[in-house]
């Protein structure tokens, strides 16, 4: 996850637990719980962006559990969701990160996209 101290698998297990699609991750320490809760909060804040990026693949209403179930059902694992968002809108589940944007090279004035 760009700029996040969370392994993708841990966040996916946590989101699955919230959505009732799995048991959730094993018990975490206070710092990890805080990171996971902030990640879910950030996903909720970005719900409109995520729904727009996924287009007709997801419903336009519902809370974080519904959004996660629909994203996962339409696109697959968190890794596949991240790849889709990165390639389609140069963003991620939790933010529009600088590392996912294209950049200009001064040598030839061309725009390159990461990946």
Question: Which tags fit this structure?
Answer:
single chain, 115 residues, mainly alpha, 5 helices
Could you write a compact summary of the structure shown?
With 115 residues, this protein is mainly α. It has helices at 8-19, 30-45, 47-54, 64-75, 78-89; strands at 103-104, 111-112. The protein has one domain (8-112).
**Helix/strand-derived class?**
mainly alpha
Number of strands: 2
Low-confidence stretches: 103-112
Number of helices, where a helix is a run of at least 4 consecutive DSSP H or I residues: 5
What value does the Rg take, in angstroms? 15 Å
Task: Characterize the overall form.
Answer: globular
What is the straight-line distance between the termini? 15 Å
- Major sheet: 2 strands, antiparallel
As laid out across the biggest beta sheet, the strand order is 1-2
Strand content: under 5%
Number of domains: 1
Give the overall pLDDT as a whole number. Answer: 79
Q: Report the helical percentage.
A: 40-55%
Order of helices and strands: HHHHHEE
What does this structure look like?
This protein is 52% helix and 3% strand. It has 115 residues and is mainly α. It has one domain. It has a two-stranded antiparallel ribbon with strand order 1-2. Helix 1 (8-19) crosses helix 4 (64-75). It is globular.
């Amino acid at each position: 996850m760009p700029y996040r101290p969370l392994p993708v698998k841990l966040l996916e297990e946590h989101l699955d637990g919230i959505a009732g699609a799995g048991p959730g991750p094993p018990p975490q320490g206070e710092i990890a719980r805080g990171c996971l809760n902030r990640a879910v909060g950030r996903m909720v804040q970005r719900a409109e962006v995520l729904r727009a990026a996924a287009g007709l693949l997801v419903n336009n209403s519902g809370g974080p559990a519904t959004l996660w179930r629909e994203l996962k059902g339409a696109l697959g694992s968190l890794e596949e969701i991240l790849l889709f968002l990165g390639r389609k809108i140069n963003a991620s589940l939790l933010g529009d990160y600088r590392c996912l944007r294209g950049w200009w090279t001064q040598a030839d004035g061309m725009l390159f996209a990461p990946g």
